[in-house]
Amino acid sequence: MFTEPVKLSPQEVFSSAKLQHVACQVYLDTICKLPALVRAWWNSQNKRVMDHVEKFTSNHVTSVISSREIQAVQNADVSLENMTVKGRPTAREVVATYTIEEVAIELVVKLPANHPLGVVTIDGGRRVGVSQSQWRHWLLQLTTFLTHQNGSILDGLALWKRNVDKRFEGVEECMICFYVLHGATCQLPKLSCRTCKKRFHS
């Protein structure tokens, strides 16, 4: 009922099965287009209703929506400079890799078993050239976007990429090794030359 679109005609008499099919399609369309609203509604229900909706969604809807989201990421024609995005449908994961020079920053977005009712988990992986608090702020911002907005995973990753781009934008390369990030410590140039005021790695 969720994979086949419903066909309606004005002359048709509605049967119980047809009504169920229409209801399933309405629920699927609503949860696809307004996941934050459905999630907020679900969280406001009593335990019994929450359990029924979660069970129904997990059994019938999550696989359809997860595969659509991951397929949309894989088929996206969006040019994300310095970043590659890959989907892992069987694991319900999307992996974004941001590359600066020879260093890669990886971010994994994991969809829950009751997606989109549950909250996505984001594994930050290795942070490079960013303080721990800034990194946590970015991950929190991405989690909040994916939880409380009606945007897609690709929209959220584009937001994260903009933050990373802004962080490294305008940072001059080290005048000794000619890299923005240090090869061993992955730090930005911090020390400043007293004569020329150019920054270099410690």
Automatic annotation (TrEMBL):
<keyword id="KW-0833">Ubl conjugation pathway</keyword>
<protein>
    <recommendedName>
        <fullName>E3 ubiquitin-protein ligase listerin</fullName>
        <ecNumber>2.3.2.27</ecNumber>
    </recommendedName>
</protein>
<dbReference type="InterPro" id="IPR054477">
    <property type="entry name" value="LTN1_E3_ligase_6th"/>
</dbReference>
<dbReference type="GO" id="GO:0061630">
    <property type="term" value="F:ubiquitin protein ligase activity"/>
</dbReference>
<comment type="similarity">
    <text>Belongs to the LTN1 family.</text>
</comment>
<dbReference type="GO" id="GO:0016874">
    <property type="term" value="F:ligase activity"/>
</dbReference>
<dbReference type="GO" id="GO:0008270">
    <property type="term" value="F:zinc ion binding"/>
</dbReference>
<dbReference type="GO" id="GO:0072344">
    <property type="term" value="P:rescue of stalled ribosome"/>
</dbReference>
<dbReference type="GO" id="GO:1990112">
    <property type="term" value="C:RQC complex"/>
</dbReference>
<comment type="pathway">
    <text>Protein modification; protein ubiquitination.</text>
</comment>
<dbReference type="Pfam" id="PF22999">
    <property type="entry name" value="LTN1_E3_ligase_6th"/>
</dbReference>
<comment type="subunit">
    <text>Component of the ribosome quality control complex (RQC).</text>
</comment>
<dbReference type="GO" id="GO:0005829">
    <property type="term" value="C:cytosol"/>
</dbReference>
<dbReference type="InterPro" id="IPR054478">
    <property type="entry name" value="LTN1_UBC"/>
</dbReference>
<dbReference type="Pfam" id="PF23009">
    <property type="entry name" value="UBC_like"/>
</dbReference>
<dbReference type="GO" id="GO:0016567">
    <property type="term" value="P:protein ubiquitination"/>
</dbReference>
<keyword id="KW-0436">Ligase</keyword>
<keyword id="KW-0479">Metal-binding</keyword>
<keyword id="KW-0863">Zinc-finger</keyword>
<comment type="function">
    <text>E3 ubiquitin-protein ligase. Component of the ribosome quality control complex (RQC), a ribosome-associated complex that mediates ubiquitination and extraction of incompletely synthesized nascent chains for proteasomal degradation.</text>
</comment>
<dbReference type="GO" id="GO:1990116">
    <property type="term" value="P:ribosome-associated ubiquitin-dependent protein catabolic process"/>
</dbReference>
<dbReference type="GO" id="GO:0043023">
    <property type="term" value="F:ribosomal large subunit binding"/>
</dbReference>
<keyword id="KW-0808">Transferase</keyword>
<dbReference type="InterPro" id="IPR039795">
    <property type="entry name" value="LTN1/Rkr1"/>
</dbReference>
<feature type="domain" description="E3 ubiquitin-protein ligase listerin ubiquitin conjugating">
    <location>
        <begin position="83"/>
        <end position="167"/>
    </location>
</feature>
<keyword id="KW-0862">Zinc</keyword>
<feature type="domain" description="E3 ubiquitin-protein ligase listerin HEAT repeat region">
    <location>
        <begin position="9"/>
        <end position="74"/>
    </location>
</feature>
